Amino acid sequence: MQIELQQIHKSFGNHHVLKGIDLRVDAGTIHGLVGENGAGKSTLMKILTGYLSRSAGRILLDGEEVNTADPATAAALGIGMLYQEPQDFPPLTVLENFIVGRDSHPDNHRGRQQQRLSELSEQVHFQLHGSDSVERLTVGERQQLEFLRLLGRDARLMILDEPTTGISDRQKARLFAALRQIREQGRTILLVSHKLEEIAALCDRVTILRHGLVSGEEDAPFHIPRLLELMFDQPPGSRAQPQQCPSGKLLLALDQVSTAGERTGLNGCSCRIHQGELVGLAGLSGSGQGLFLRLAAALQQPQTGAVSFRGISLSGRDHRSVRRLGGTFLPANRLEEGLIPGFTLTDHFTLAHGCSRSEAREAATQAIARFNIRATPESRVESLSGGNQQRLLLSLIPTSASLVLLENPTRGLDVASAEWVWHYLREQFCSQGALIFSSAELEEILAVANRILVFFDGRVVRDLPIDQVDYQDVVAAMTGG
Amino acid sequence: MRNFKRHLTDTLLILAIALLFTGLLLLVVGASPLEAFGQLLSGSFGSWSRLARVLNVWIPLTLCSLGLLYAFRSGLWNIGVEGQMVLGAIGCTAVLRWGMDTAAPQLMLPVALLAGLLLGSLWALLAGWLKIRGGVHEIFAGLGLNFVAMGLILWLIFGPWKRPGIASMSGTELFPKALWFPTLEGWRVSPFALLLTLAAIALTAWVLNHSRFGLNLKAVGHNPRAVTLYGLSAQRYMLIAILISGALAGLAGGLQVSGIYHRLIPAISSGYGYLGLLVVMLANFKLLPIPFIALFFAALNVGSIQLPMMLKLDSSLSGVIQGACVLSALLVFGVRRLREGRSG
Predict the structure, then answer these.
(1) B232 neighbourhood in chain A, CB within 8 Å
(2) For residues B224 and B96, what is the distance between their CA atoms, to the nearest angstrom?
(3) How many CB pairs under 8 A join A and B?
(4) Distance between CA A332 and CA A339 in Å, rounded?
(5) d(CA A385, CA A388)
(6) Test mutation, B229, B232, B236, B337, chain A, max A CBs within 10 A
(7) What is the pLDDT along chain A (481 residues), one digit of tens a residue?
(8) I need a surface site. Which of A32, A142, B67, B178 has the fewest CB within 10 A?
């Protein structure tokens, strides 16, 4: 299916997000869409799928004008989308989520649908079980489920927003193979990504957005510096080299900790983390990294073993105690766990700092300038793009924090933003405390951390200073080697 | 200013739809809508004594609605307001019965109100505790406790507190005049209760819209998972909210006993707990419209009393209008939300 967008405009109130986008994607191709955070990629895709209405412009499918008034209409036209934030029903099982909302296939026979789910799952080598509850899946696994749902319906145009976020390199390779496979079937794929290597590996053609406008179009093979030039006002500098922070006093101690949750739980984890350490948690998504962070934040209690922070046992305490002791946690699910929808930036600062409104507005204004958040103090957080939401969360961390726990902190951020984030975190917190973060990208951990913990199947299988890391060994360890 | 205009059009639209619907209904049953609405109006605001009766309904209804607002802010549906009001009435009666023979019965009045407030909040706390510690949804907890409260009040009226000689649905024995809330000469409204309600409105306005506590409460209601990360305990805020809710309901119950009926009767709550839910929904969960809507509902309740006599219509017409108002309000708010979503 060929799709053409003509002069698409979109405004949220006075905020002009899309300023006239023209885009054509030919049938049977993989087309990339790249751009900095807040360039308008997600908004454009949501318009295409009927999730948002457009302020002006036309959409043509195979040369005929259509009106994607709502997601159901768009789905009936054969447009399917994998959103950056999973759009599923957490209380239901994997199979129920797979079945739900498939009006064009009124076959609700559980056995047959389970069969289909298993087949599709097998095709792309995902390990999802129909009877698992979605609530217990990680973000990465929920995205896998979404992908299977798209494969399950006959979407002729598949839009993928950062599809490789949170999945392993091995799964990524299989996903890419599957994408090439369905391209051969004549389906059209629109790939939204920050990862230019992926774009280069997959796409036939790429469109670059900047500040709500098309800044350029390129055909494969791509010259990545050229793409970066089109994406950013100025080319981002090279990645900062990790600094060795001196190790100081003991901050966090885990002793033979086990608990249930995620896919694998966490088994017999022991670990000591000192001031000055910047620890990266590596592993396939849902191998225990999230549980490790939540145990340290006292958002979850261990079933056996003990966790202590600055010498104080966290047994029977909740996250408020950790906060009082200088700990802070940033979840991957920003809008579900980290921010309060309906609240403005100022409201969030009032909550976080416990200060007056005028002080909070002042703090919000400063944070907007310092963290380059595209918003006003009175913007509601749900109107912010994913990257801006993350910058807001970062700006809410008390500057005196001594233990900063981050779950996939640069998820959905472009290269320049991610680099800025790491620079800030290191400068602000590394000398006075410790930083622990999980990341789906091993390269990021190797570039940023000074110590790595590798998780596999709920256990820590490697614990190494970064200069002793053998890349091949770590990759093997992540997959059980 | 634009906001005000929008609220005004919304209100007029809601009223128009509700009256149109009720009017059609009246035509179907062969009554004149104009005459019925006229009777409602004259029945509620036609004389000073009628207005006084409206205010006597307005006071407990407003208190219950204010209480509900706290619970809603924290994301809880406090269906148990009805039972909390009953417990408040029981607490108040207990103190007054005990205080009848003391030297200074007037001193007993504030103590009795306090007892009502306390018992109401304890009853609410029970619902909150069931939710947080027992995992019982607050709607079921509240509904269940309403039935228990109803059983309790009937047992008291027909058992330990029965009138000498005969126990009856008309309630316990009247208190001596010394234990009645003083009213102005010839006016059956206690100025004290009126002032108390106005103070509750002002205090609620400040707490919910301007205090840190109000903002925290709203945050808990919007995203209980996230507030933990801001160092707040969602459970504690929910408990406090439902506690306040119960305290205001208990106060309303106490005022019913000490200011209006001067005894405990089975229907002491008069359904204001449930009616309060409608008031808050009609107010779109905002504070400012609540006193006005409560006044409107109170007028309907009082005005409808004379419908059976004058027009041979059932007095439940007021309930029909109230229900129609809420439904059309939900309709108007819903349509507005949809249109905002569409046009972005």
Answers:
(1) 320, 351
(2) 41
(3) 56
(4) 11
(5) 5
(6) B229
(7) 888 999 999 988 777 889 999 999 988 899 999 887 678 888 888 888 888 888 888 998 888 888 888 888 888 888 888 876 678 888 889 988 888 866 555 666 788 888 888 888 887 777 788 888 888 887 677 877 888 888 887 778 889 887 776 566 766 777 788 788 878 878 899 998 877 778 888 899 999 988 888 988 988 888 877 887 787 665 444 344 444 555 678 999 999 999 987 767 888 999 999 998 999 999 877 788 999 999 999 999 999 999 999 999 998 898 999 999 999 999 988 888 899 999 999 999 999 888 888 999 999 999 999 988 889 999 999 888 888 898 899 999 988 899 999 999 988 777 888 888 899 999 888 888 999 999 877 888 988 999 999 998 888 999 999 888 887 788 778 766 6
(8) B178
Q: Is the ipTM of this complex over 0.90?
A: no
Minimal Cβ distance to A329: which of B222, B223, B229? B229
User: Two tokens at A309?
Assistant: 């922070």
Name the domain count of chain B: 1
Q: CA of B211, closest CA in chain A: separation in Å? A: 9
Contact B229 A320 (CB under 8 A): no
Report the CATH number that the domain containing residue B239 is assigned in CATH. Answer: 1.10.3470
Say if CB A199 and CB A34 are below 8 A apart. yes
Instruction: Characterise B228 by phi-psi region: left (phi > 0), alpha (psi -120 to 50), beta (else).
Output: alpha
The identity of residue B52, as a single letter, is: A
- Asked if B343 has any chain A CB less than 8 Å from its own CB, the reply is yes
Task: Tell me which DSSP letter residue A100 carries.
Answer: T
Same domain as A254, residue A216: no
Q: Is residue A356 part of a domain?
A: no
Cα–Cα distance measured from residue A358 to residue B82, given in angstroms and rounded to the nearest whole number: 40
Q: Of B226, B231, B342, which is closest to A339 when you measure between CB atoms?
A: B226
φ, ψ of residue A377 in degrees (nearest 5): -60, -25
Question: How far apart, in whole angstroms, are the C-alpha atoms of residue A137 and residue A148?
Answer: 15
Residues of B in contact with A328 (CB under 8 A): 229
State the total domains in chain A: 2
Residues A167 and A54 in one domain: yes
Tokens encoding A385: 């793009």
The domain that holds A41 is classified in CATH as: 3.40.50.300
The structure tokens 């955070």 sit at A37
CB B100 within 8 A of CB B94: no
Radius of gyration of chain A (CA): 22
Q: Does a structural domain hold residue A362?
A: no
Q: What residues of chain B lie within 8 A of the CB of A354, using their CB? A: 212
* Token code pair at residue A347: 């409201």
What global pTM score does this model have?
0.73
**Which domain covers residue B328, as residue numbers?**
2-343
CB contact under 8 A, A299 and B212: no
CB A128 within 8 A of CB A121: yes
To the nearest whole Å, the CA of A196 is away from the closest chain B CA by 32
A104 and A17 assigned to the same domain:
yes
Q: How far apart are alpha carbons A5 and A47 in whole angstroms?
A: 10
Do A60 and A167 belong to one domain? Answer: yes
| Structural domain containing residue A194 | 3-231
Instruction: Return the amino acid letter for A90.
Output: P
Asked if residues A462 and A453 have their Cβ atoms less than 8 Å apart, the reply is: yes
Residue A350 lies in a domain: no
- Name which of A378, A382, A336, A136 is nearest B223 in CA terms: A336
AA identity, residue A477: A
Alpha helices in A153-265 (DSSP H): 169-184, 196-202, 224-231
Q: How far, in Å, CA of A120 to CA of A98, rounded?
A: 11
Strand blocks (E) in A46-201: 56-61, 64-66, 79-82, 157-161, 188-192
* Best of A47, A351, A407 to mutate (most B CBs within 10 Å, chain B): A351
- Distance, in Å, from the CA atom of B39 to the CA atom of A261, rounded to the nearest integer, reads 64
